[in-house]
């Protein structure tokens, strides 16, 4: 009997076997792979935008050739290992021109989105915070802008301002102001009714301080998401105006002007328009995907 008790006590007090060590590095790698698999579209969009930014910032790294000089003997050659996007009608490498054209196109896009973001946010903030006659007047102006297609409004403005990449950026930015103003106003009205904002006003905090510390900080997230979405639309608008001849003076490459140069050779050299067009489409879709992801996460 005593031997049985000793054996039972020993069995109870025996330490449990140590768990097998977990390979933390392998677990992290598997976790990253699963995340990439679930969000492959978002990862691909990020890669596309990173490449586009790389083209704009370091064009010589991605294409070391001269975008303005061509070899007449190599004109209208199709895509190959020597010329990834083929050559144009005077022997210039189309891929090199696309890479070097990203700088002007994306710079104009950033300027346009920056103008729309700043001006539209200020209009929406002032309209939603002040209300009354100020809100009515500003929103009627915004309604007029929204009633005109953005591209048509940009075309009218750039016609008045004149040629040039900067004028194209200003025209596109003004055409996008109304969208930012509407979104900012709706968010300001939502935050303005919050209890902590009412308490700040009741406690005697200055009007501009409340707007900066409480209203603006809690209303900007959807506007930032809209900026990411409108970045793609601005790329398309800037390229469209450049296609119509309002951008940089040839032979300076821009994405829209590259498509315009190849439209007379569609039957014999489709790559001159198709491949730069696919680059624009990829950047627009990538910006839309990232913008919608930011918007979805900001609403949670």
From TrEMBL:
Query: Where this protein primarily resides, as one coarse class?
Result: membrane
InterPro entries in the cross-refs: BP-dependent_transpt_permease, MetI-like, MetI-like_sf
User: Per the UniProt record, which residue ranges are transmembrane?
Assistant: 40-62, 102-125, 137-158, 164-183, 223-249, 269-290
Top-level lineage group? Bacteria
* Membrane topology, record value: Multi-pass membrane protein
Every ABC transmembrane type-1 domain range: 102-291
Q: Where in the cell is it found?
A: Cell membrane
Enumerate the Pfam families for this protein: BPD_transp_1
Output the PROSITE patterns linked to this UniProt entry.
Answer: ABC_TM1
Protein name in UniProt:
ABC transporter permease
Organism, by scientific name, is: Rhodococcus gannanensis
């Amino acid at each position: 009997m005593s031997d049985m008790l000793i054996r039972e006590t020993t069995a109870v007090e025996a330490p449990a076997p140590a768990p097998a060590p977990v390979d933390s590095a392998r677990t992290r790698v598997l976790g990253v792979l699963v995340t990439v698999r679930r969000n492959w579209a978002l990862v691909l969009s990020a890669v596309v935008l990173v490449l586009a930014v790389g083209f704009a910032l370091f064009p010589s790294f991605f294409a070391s050739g001269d975008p303005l000089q061509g070899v007449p003997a190599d004109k209208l050659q199709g895509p190959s290992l020597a010329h990834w996007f083929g050559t144009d009608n005077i022997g210039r490498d189309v891929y090199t021109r696309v890479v070097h054209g990203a700088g002007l196109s994306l710079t104009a896009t950033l300027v346009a989105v920056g103008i729309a973001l700043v001006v539209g946010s200020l209009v929406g903030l002032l309209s939603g915070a002040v209300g009354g006659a100020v809100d009515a007047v500003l929103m009627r102006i915004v309604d007029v802008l929204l009633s005109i297609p953005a591209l048509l409004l940009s075309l009218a403005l750039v016609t008045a301002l004149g040629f040039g990449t900067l004028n194209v950026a200003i025209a596109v930015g003004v055409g996008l102001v109304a969208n930012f103003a509407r979104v900012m106003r709706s968010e300001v009205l939502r935050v303005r009714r919050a209890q902590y904002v009412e308490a700040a006003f009741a406690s005697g905090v200055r009007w501009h301080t409340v707007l900066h510390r409480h209203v603006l900080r809690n209303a900007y997230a959807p506007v930032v998401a809209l900026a990411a979405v409108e970045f793609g639309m601005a790329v398309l608008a800037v390229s469209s105006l450049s296609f119509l001849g309002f951008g940089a003076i040839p032979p300076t490459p821009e994405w829209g002007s590259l498509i315009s140069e190849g439209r007379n050779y569609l039957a014999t050299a489709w790559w001159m328009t198709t491949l730069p067009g696919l680059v624009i489409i990829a950047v627009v879709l990538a910006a839309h995907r990232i913008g919608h992801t930011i918007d979805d996460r900001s609403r949670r």
